Amino acid sequence: MILDAPDTHLLEASMIVTTPALDSATGHVADMYAADQREDGLVYGHTRAMAVNPEAHQAFEALVRAIVPSIGLRTYELATLGAARAIGSQHCLLAHGRRSLRAGLFDEDQLAHLVRDEPGSGLDDADVAVLAFAEKLSTDAAAMTDADAQRLREAGFDDRQIVDIALAAGVRNYFSRALQALAVPVDDVPGLSPALSSALREAAGPRADDVSGG
């Protein structure tokens, strides 16, 4: 349900958990809500869900900040998109698809080709290696061997970067799977064309309980 306010639209997501109220949020929860409102004029369901444990959300953000410097934003987003696609996370494909677009990492056509795993994405061998590693980690990590990390090494990544690519995919599993486990509604994300939004949603596969708001 969308609640109209003078200058802002606030999303009230329907979830099994009771999330912190929008009008009485304080501390990190208030910061989380304000960031969404400032960016998009609404508070996303996934933000509200994670706001139930703001300390965990802060720890997640700190881990991301520790990962990105060694691999750069583009490789981080590739690992994120690869993991989100493998998990089937519409939440994270939409959010990080738009983040990649706004950061100028890809244009709309490239991003659509990327998530559909088809030619035209502009990926090089190193990019493809990151996606493959993130996807395998997200689907069958127990079957991974040194050969999987070796492909990253052969693509030019050093030891720290290999570890951080694994962490980038791992933290996406943590976040995405928590949202899925709580059946958090998938919200429409402003700033995406209908075609790209559809491509990102379809890349996650069918979701019978998908609930959208926007």
Tell me about this structure:
With 214 residues, the protein is mainly α. Helices cover 63% and strands 3% of the residues. The protein has helices spanning 27-40, 45-50, 54-87, 90-102, 108-116, 125-140, 146-154, 159-181, 194-203; strands spanning 2-4, 9-11. A two-stranded antiparallel sheet has the order 1-2. Residues 1-13 and 207-214 have low confidence and may be disordered.
Short structural summary:
The protein is an all-alpha fold. The chain has 9 helices and 2 strands; from the N terminus they run E-E-H-H-H-H-H-H-H-H-H. The chain is globular, with a radius of gyration of 17 Å.
List the helices and strands and how they pair.
Layout: E1 2-4, E2 9-11, H1 27-40, H2 45-50, H3 54-87, H4 90-102, H5 108-116, H6 125-140, H7 146-154, H8 159-181, H9 194-203
Antiparallel strand pairs: 1-2
Helix pairs in contact: 3-4, 3-6, 3-8, 4-9, 5-9, 6-7, 6-8
Distance between the termini: 9 Å
What is the C-alpha radius of gyration, as a whole number of Å? 17 Å
Strand content: under 5%
Oligomer: single chain
What order do the strands of the largest sheet run in, or round the barrel if closed? 1-2
Task: Label the structural class.
Answer: mainly alpha
Count of DSSP E strands?
2
**Main β-sheet description:** 2 strands, antiparallel
| Unreliable segments of 5+ consecutive residues | 1-13, 207-214
